[in-house]
Design a protein that fits this description.
homodimer; 97 residues; alpha+beta; Mth169, Chain: A; 3-stranded antiparallel sheet; 3 strands; 28% helix; elongated
Chain lengths: 97, 97
Amino acid sequence: MGRVVVEVMPKPEILDPQGKAVLGALPRLGFAGITEVRQGRRFELEVDGEVTAEVLDLVQRAAETLLSNPVIEDVVRVAAIEDEGAAPLPAAAEGPA
Amino acid sequence: MGRVVVEVMPKPEILDPQGKAVLGALPRLGFAGITEVRQGRRFELEVDGEVTAEVLDLVQRAAETLLSNPVIEDVVRVAAIEDEGAAPLPAAAEGPA
């Protein structure tokens, strides 16, 4: 059983009232130095069998048609989750979003 | 100016009606082979200056107090976004979620 992560974010030109609300709340809670917040969605999908290129292609199409609204959102990431261990997450770099 | 990504997911024992709705819609739209869907949230934060360990620590605390509801959600990822280029995302592996 494989797992795939899909991440979608509001397009840059789209207003993001949820992100703005978070941005406004941060300094009130003592968190300084954050200048912008955008809020999107993250999906974790479990698939039958291994995460092959075909599976990633199917998930990519699902991401662009069902998991995101292509008018206002971009699919920023579709990737296999390979490590199923319980170790803490590394602070890994990722591509542009 | 640095950027940090924060990802939160519903805890495994918490019902996720949005994920269930997506799971039910997938086969109706012709996407077979997906056995489970969980929906969480992804935040992108812009910070003043570089993303230092101190900044990641501040964002981690913000993630656990403001960006997520610790009763029903887990913070699964707090990481710097290093690559600001416009290239397509690699299908990179990541840690457990």
